[in-house]
Amino acid sequence: MHHVADPRDVNRRSFCPMTPDTAISVSATRTCLCNADITALKQVLSNTPNARGLPNSAFTSDAFYDLERELLFTRTWFCIGFASDIPDPGDVAPVWFGDLSILLVRGDDEAVRVFHNICPHRGMRLVREPAKNKRVIACPYHCWTFDKTGKLLRRPHFMGPGDAEGLPHEADPPALKEIRSAIWGDAIMINIDGKAPDFAEHTRHLDAAAAPYGAVREGHNTDNIDYVIDANWKLIVENFIDSYHVKWVHKALEASTPMATYNHETIGNICVGRAPVAEARAGYGGNMPGWPGLSQEAAGTLTYLALFPNLLLVFSNDRMTCFHLMPDGPGRSRERIKFYMPHDALMPEFETERTECVESYRTLNDEDIWLVEELQQSRRSPAFDGGRFSPHWDRITHHFAKQVAEALLA
Ligand code: FES
Ligand SMILES: [Fe+2]
After folding, report:
1. What are the angstrom distances between the C-alpha of 216 and each of 186, 262, 313?
2. What integer pLDDT is reported at residue 283 of this predicted model?
């Protein structure tokens, strides 16, 4: 039976997304889109007044989810975690990406590297729990040992009992398989197939949207909130960029930032909304020191955006909030909200303001979670055909849906 979450349950359901044993494995069996899905996805690509939303199968079907992983997640830049999860040299953290185990490593050179978490000897999972101060990465099975750049250091007794060190002697010794990765702010992005456009190209529109807020990328991660949501990741993205519901669902937000004041922009791989905000909004922690050197216009504007596929960001005069979505099967998502603030806001006298900021987002998110879980349940009804888009409010949602359809039809 479907569980409609009581928002008060959220904290009890919170968990750490870096803990591998909480993940659900997903089959990587290759499947194809059925004809009905192809027809429905083509209809998503129509102009907004004539288009339909993504078909129900995009939210409920295991086969569609497998295709999404194969054709979408692995081919683009996908946010897998955060540099602040592995802050110090020697920190390692395993992350489940569907049924792939991925390893985040902070090297002695402070660089973040991302590897497939698989030993090249017999395929053992190398690291099962986050750990600190790792000098080397040693496989628990036969003790092959790698440095933090993935290079094989030793493989005890490889040539027999007398070969204590088993030092690599081949021209091309086995090594950990590194995954193409890059960092934006604190977010670690990976491109598993290695063929996505340059990272600078991927973040071009994001950079332009973030530029008015100056040093947001250097903000300090002050707080995190974790959720498990019984809804497909795409419903969470669509709800995040939907300002049409603010008037009826977020009454306190509507009072300070009315829905009618929002405007939207769709450009490349981002969907952006902007709204004018008073610098100090009562109840939103609005008296903290802001990002240095902002223009009056930037200080008075809240910008929220979805970077395709799984990173959602909100910029304002004194904070950056990042929503990281990790799909966990077609009907379940893990969401982590991370808060970033300017250095001056970390001082003890702003503790109340910081808490107010975090709690205001918790309240907003709690107002949304039951809705997206209801929408997930509705996607099981044959009476729903993807839905119609408002030419004004839903243009931004349609842009997101088109990116999904284009990736699947490519
Ligand atoms: S499987 Fe890793 S050392 Fe054998
Ligand atoms: Fe909402």
Report:
1. 10, 22, 11
2. 56
Phi, psi dihedral angles at 267 (to 5 degrees)? -150, 115
Q: What is the pLDDT of residues 288-323, one digit of tens each?
A: 889 999 999 999 999 999 999 999 999 999 999 999
Question: If you ran DSSP here, which 8-state letter would residue 17 be given?
Answer: T
The domains located in the chain, with CATH, are 7-77+199-409 (3.90.380.10), 85-179 (2.102.10.10)
Query: Which residue's CA lies nearest to atom 4 of ligand 1?
Result: 142
Distance CA 183, CA 171 (A): 32
Q: How far is the CA of 74 from the centre of ligand 2 (A)?
A: 29
Ligand 1 neighbour 140 (Cβ under 6 A): no
Encode pLDDT of 163-189 as tens digits. Answer: 999 998 999 999 999 999 999 999 999
- Both structure tokens of 226: 């974790």
Relative to beta strand 100-106, strand 112-116 is antiparallel
Q: Could you tell me the two tokens for 380?
A: 């099981």
Report yes or no for ipTM above 0.90.
yes
The confidence score (pLDDT) of residue 6 equals 36
Separation in Å, CA 6 to CA 9, 11, 105, 215, 366: 5, 11, 37, 37, 9
Q: Hey, whose CA ends up nearest to atom 3 of ligand 1? A: 142
- 3 state DSSP class of 80: strand
Q: Is the dihedral of CA 210, 219, 102, 33 positive or negative?
A: negative
Nearest-atom number in ligand 1 for the CA of 144 is 3
Q: Relative to the alpha carbon of 375, which ligand is closest?
A: 2
Nearest CA to ligand 1 atom 1: 122
Torsions phi, psi for 367 (to 5 deg) = -70, -20
Q: Are 308 and 206 in contact (CB under 8 A)?
A: no
